[in-house]
Amino acid sequence: ACRIIAVANQKGGVGKTTTAINLSSALCQRGHTVTLIDLDPQGNASTGLGIDRAVRHQGSYALISGATPYRSSLRPTAIPGLSLIPAEAGLAGAEVELVMSDRREFRLRDILAPVSYGNAAPNFIVIDCPPSLNLLSLNALVSAHAVIIPLQAEFLALEGLTQVTATIDRIRKSLNPTLALHGILLTMVDRRNNLSELVEADVRGFFGGKVYQTIIPRNVRLSEAPSHGTPISLYDAKSAGTLAYAQFAEEFLAREMTF
Amino acid sequence: ACRIIAVANQKGGVGKTTTAINLSSALCQRGHTVTLIDLDPQGNASTGLGIDRAVRHQGSYALISGATPYRSSLRPTAIPGLSLIPAEAGLAGAEVELVMSDRREFRLRDILAPVSYGNAAPNFIVIDCPPSLNLLSLNALVSAHAVIIPLQAEFLALEGLTQVTATIDRIRKSLNPTLALHGILLTMVDRRNNLSELVEADVRGFFGGKVYQTIIPRNVRLSEAPSHGTPISLYDAKSAGTLAYAQFAEEFLAREMTF
Ligand SMILES: Nc1ncnc2c1ncn2[C@@H]1O[C@H](COP(=O)(O)OP(=O)(O)OP(=O)(O)O)[C@@H](O)[C@H]1O
Ligand SMILES: Nc1ncnc2c1ncn2[C@@H]1O[C@H](COP(=O)(O)OP(=O)(O)OP(=O)(O)O)[C@@H](O)[C@H]1O
Ligand SMILES: [Mg+2]
Ligand SMILES: [Mg+2]
C-alpha cells in the first residue's frame, strides 16, 4: 500500500515547499512513484514544478471538495514518476467552506484511503501544507501516516516547534491513531553563524533521534530553482542543495523501514 | 486620532514580526506612542518583546472576542511608549469561532474604532498578522488605515505579492474603503546574490514608488534579538539591522505625511 507523508509546520518560510518538492523528486530518481499534493493556497509547490497558474483548475480544492476524482486531478511533471495535484485559486476559500461541512477533518482522508489501497496507488503521497494549523493542515495530518517537520535553524522557528508537535500528539490521540512523527529536518543551516549551531544543538538535545542526521545547508541555488519550475536536481545537479536532498531521501527511506 | 497599521503578507517567514517589532520600537524612540497587537497564534511578537507564554492571558484573543476591554489587555514593554497586546494560546481557536459569528470581519474594527478616537489613544496601533489571509488577517485589514507588506527578496515571496495586493484591493472595494497600501518593504536582502537584485529590480519596476527606498539587509543580529526578548535597537544598537529599521522609521513617518 502507499505511504502518505505530510510536510507541515505552522511557522512560515521554514522550507516546507522546498522539502516537499525536492524529497519527492529525489524519491522518484530512486525508482519510487510519488504524488505531491499542493494543499497551500499560495500554490508554491505548483509553481516550483512548473505548472502555470492558468492551468491549475481541477486541483486540490476540487479534490477535497469532491468535485474531481483523484485520477483526473493528477498532472505529469518533468520528473518521471512524479505527479502533482496543483493548488488552484479556489483553495483559499476552502477553509470557510470546510468549517461548515460534515467530517470536516476527514474530507481528504476519505478521498485518499481508497486511492492508497488501489492498484494504481503511488509508493508515496506527499502533502505540502500551508503555514498554519488550520483545517487544510488538519486534513493533511488526519490523512497522513507520518509527518516531516522542516525546521529553519532560527530561534523563532525553534520556539514554534512545540506547537506543531503538540498538535501531532493531539491528532494521534483523537483523529488519527496511526500518525507518527517521521522526523525533524534542519533547514537553511548556516554553519558560519552561532545561532544555527545553537538551534541544532538544542533540537538534537531535546528531540534526539527524531532529528534527521542530514541537514539542509543554506544554498542560494535552492531558492533559484522554483523560478525555473524544476526541482534542484534538474536545475543544478552539482549544488549543495541537490546533494543534501539526495542524502535526505536516503535517510528518509532508511527510516521508512522502521515504520 | 491614531493611525492603525497592519503588517501583512500570507507568505511565511518574510519578516512581518521582525518589522512590526522594530518599526514600533523605532517610532517610540522618536517620541511616538505605539500599541503593538500580536494577532498571530504563534505569538512571535509577544516573544520578541519578552512577554513570557505563561502571562499572555487576556491578550488579543480576549480582545477580539470581547471578553477583555482594550485598556486591560495592554502590557508594558522595555521600550518607553510601546505597549503590547500579546497573543494567548486561545487565539489558535479564534478562526473557527469567528466564522460563525456576526460581523466576523468587523470584530476588531468595532473594538478599535472607539479606542482610536479616545483621548488615551496611542499615535499608532501596529498589528502583526499571521502568514495567511484568514479571518484574523482580514480583521486586521478591515481595521487598518494602511498596510505595510514586508517582502523577502526571494522568487516565491515575489510570486505571492499579487495575492496580498489583490486582497487589499478587494477589501478596499467592499469592507474598508479607506484602506491604503502604505508600502512594500524589501527584507533579508543579500546584495551579494543575484536573486535579491533581480527581485528588487522586478518589484521596483512593477510597484514603483510604493516600494520603500529603505531596504532591510540580511543581518544575523536581527534573528538573534528575539531570543533576548528585545528589539534590535536594545540588543545591538550599532548593528546593520538597527540602522536599517531606524532609516525605515524615518521613511515611514515621512510617507505618513502624504496620507
Ligand atoms: N536551504 C535553503 N537555502 C536557501 N534558500 C532556501 C532553502 N530552503 C528554502 N529556501 C528559500 O527560502 C524561502 C522559504 O522556503 P519555502 O517557501 O520552501 O518555505 P515554506 O515553509 O514552504 O514557506 P511557507 O510557510 O510560506 O509555505 C523560499 O524562497 C525558498 O526558495
Ligand atoms: N533582515 C533579517 N536578517 C536576518 N534574519 C531575519 C531578518 N528578518 C527576519 N529574520 C529572521 O527570519 C525569520 C523570519 O522572520 P519573521 O519571523 O519576522 O517573519 P514572519 O513573516 O513574521 O514569519 P511568519 O510568517 O511565520 O509569521 C525569523 O527567524 C527572523 O528572526
Ligand atoms: Mg510553502
Ligand atoms: Mg510572524
Shape annotation of chain A = globular
Kindly estimate the percentage of residues of chain A that lie in beta strands according to DSSP. 15-25%
Order of helices and strands of chain A: EHEHHHEEHHEHEHEHEHHH
Low-confidence stretches of chain A: none
Architecture overview:
The structure is a homodimer of 259-residue chains. Chain A is globular and about 50 Å long. Chain A has an eight-stranded mixed sheet with strand order 3-4-2-5-1-6-7-8, with helices on both faces. Chain A is of the alpha/beta class and 259 residues long. Chain A has helices at residues 16-29, 44-48, 60-64, 70-73, 94-99, 107-117, 135-143, 155-174, 194-207, 220-224, 232-235, 240-256, and strands at 3-7, 34-38, 75-76, 82-85, 124-128, 146-152, 180-189, 211-217. The longest helix of chain A is centred in the middle third of the chain and has 20 residues, at 155-174. The A-B interface holds A 10-14, 17, 41-42, 44, 47-48, 92, 95-96, 99-100, 130-134, 152, 154-156, 159-160, 163, 193, 195, 220, 223-224, 226-227 and B 10-14, 17, 41-42, 44, 47-48, 92, 95-96, 99-100, 130-134, 152, 154-156, 159-160, 163, 193, 195, 220, 223-224, 226-227. The complex binds adenosine-5'-triphosphate (ATP) (2 copies) and magnesium ion (MG) (2 copies). One adenosine-5'-triphosphate sits between chains A (12-18, 40, 44, 131, 187-188, 216, 218-220, 222-223, 226) and B (11-13, 131, 154, 156-157).
